[in-house]
Design goal:
The complex is a heterodimer. Chain A is of the alpha/beta class. Chain A is 45% helix and 11% strand. In chain A, the strands form 2 sheets. A 6-stranded mixed sheet of chain A has the order 4-3-2-5-7-6. A two-stranded antiparallel sheet of chain A has the order 1-8. Chain A starts with a strand and ends in an 8-residue tail after the last helix.
Chain lengths: 249, 233
């Protein structure tokens, strides 16, 4: 089953955190006069963010950038279609002109073990450009995302910018779940009985992070080996496209 | 050519990513080429084409044909999986090595790429007592080739997959393709009727598996690994 559902266990201790997030969202919406969008990926954090925003602004556009074949987990794609078709969430699918595989062909792959300029270029073409173009077309004044302080970089970002931050171009960025822990996110999903991608149950709720299944930058740290062991159909399809990757499996 | 049951007795865990490795036909092919000094560390398609006639001549397995497609008559490995665990192997530049003397020259070491590149990779170990293959071939010739094989699977240099003994027994039935009604080896989906419960994967179904023409959508065996005794480590 590609979808799982929160088990309904009550989490009233989250009420304060939820109310704080809702107040922040209200302030952000007022600041931007409801000309906003929320980025959604099919992962747990953006799911909770979108659910919180919809409590105040149910028609909020939820932008999902479909990065193309082999670049999204099937379960996450299934979840996004479920939210759109069955629950009536305003999920808008954006498709960049070149998917991840085409970008790998055009720009090459990074095997450096960390985020490089090449990754930055691919991120720009895959995510930032389609989102920026959509925002420009629709006169957007702010966006929200499911950024949390999971890593040192994100922690420092949130500490320096805060949960509500106005960029130099005037766009207001809102991180409603910025200070939530991973446990808080799962308690909320269970409490609200939200649907979520079943891959979290298979890979571990506390450890799995949604992202592109194929991450060549982390191949030195076993990402390709893990893919080969756990998802051979994705690995073999990828190797058929790029045979040199087999050296890292 | 007789129906045979090839058994490898292991003394250390096997490292494999999937349930269909190691394949006996690939192992025999490597042994044939190794004995002739024709093994290439990074074989190209041209290398594979050059040695193909030699392999065809020397291979002690029966060559079978289905609808004009040939393959070696050997099953996937069959075994009882007793335990599974993931170890890691790592490489790091030793920053604390006090014996290094650079002299007056300033040296730089790149740990992101090249010879000193760091890594931290998983090693998926399977605890198995014996691996069984079912094939049709020449017993003595197969035994002669496999006797020199001391380790199988991945990470042999780290001591994994050590074979203490090879055994080859005659069999009454030919189990290389079907065994007790279950598919025993990967087969292209256009060559056989759909087996019960088989999964489909893009797979290199005959050696050399890296050749694009040997990769195709295959029905994969699902009953060749018995997990009923599995103990998670």
């Amino acid at each position: 089953m590609p979808l799982s559902f929160g088990n309904g266990v009550n989490a009233i201790w989250l009420t304060r955190k939820r109310d704080k997030a809702l107040a922040l969202i209200k302030k952000w919406l007022d600041l931007c006069e409801y000309r906003v969008y929320c980025s959604i990926s099919g992962g747990k954090d953006s799911l909770v963010t979108a659910h919180l925003i919809r409590q105040i602004y149910p028609e909020c556009p939820l932008l999902w950038v479909n990065q193309g074949h082999l670049a999204e987990w099937d379960d996450c794609v299934e979840l996004l279609y479920y939210l759109r078709d069955n629950l009536g969430w305003n999920v808008i699918e954006l498709c960049p002109p070149l998917g991840l595989m085409q970008l790998y062909r055009q720009l090459g792959m990074s095997f450096d073990g960390h985020f490089t300029n090449l990754d930055r270029k691919q991120c720009e073409a895959l995510l930032l450009k389609p989102l920026g173009e959509w925002a420009e077309r629709h006169g957007v004044r702010g966006y929200a995302w499911g950024l949390r302080q999971e890593s040192r970089g994100r922690k420092e970002y949130l500490r320096s910018k805060g949960l509500l931050y106005t960029k130099t171009d005037g766009i207001v960025v809102c991180s409603p779940v910025g200070y939530w822990t991973t446990e808080d996110i799962w308690h909320y999903i269970d409490w609200q009985k939200l649907p979520y991608a079943a891959i979290y149950d298979r890979e571990g709720r506390l450890t799995f992070r949604n992202g592109c299944p194929i991450d060549t930058a982390l191949s030195s740290w076993g990402r390709m080996a893990d893919l080969r062991k756990k998802y051979p159909h994705i690995y073999h399809e990828f190797v058929a496209l790029f045979p040199e990757v087999a050296n890292y499996g | 050519m007789n129906n045979l049951h090839v058994i490898a007795h292991l003394s250390t865990p096997l490292v494999a990513f999937d349930d269909w490795s190691p394949s006996l036909d690939a192992l025999l092919e490597f042994q044939i080429l190794d004995r002739l000094g024709l093994v290439s560390p990074n074989p190209t398609i041209a290398d594979a084409e050059r040695v193909a006639p030699i392999v065809q001549r020397e291979m002690p397995l029966e060559r079978r044909d289905i609808d004009g497609e040939w393959y070696w008559a050997v099953s996937s490995p069959h075994y009882v999986l007793l335990g599974e665990r993931t170890q890691r192997y790592r490489k790091r530049w030793d920053y604390h090595d006090r014996h290094l003397r650079w002299g007056k020259m300033r040296q730089s070491v790149d740990t992101q790429a090249g010879h000193y590149k760091s890594y931290d990779l998983p090693r998926y170990e399977r605890l198995i007592r014996t691996i069984h293959w079912f094939c049709v071939g020449h017993r003595e010739a197969i035994l002669h080739l496999v006797e020199g094989v001391t380790h199988i699977g991945k990470k042999r240099a780290q001591g994994c997959g050590q074979v203490v003994r090879w055994e080859i027994e005659p069999l009454e039935q030919d189990w290389h393709l079907w065994r007790a009604g279950h598919l025993a080896r990967p087969m292209p989906i256009h060559l056989i009727p759909p087996p019960n419960g088989a999964s489909i994967l893009n797979w290199g179904w005959k050696p050399p598996t890296f050749l694009p023409e040997n990769k195709t959508l295959c029905y994969m065996p699902t009953e060749n690994v018995c997990r009923s005794h599995l103990v998670m480590a």
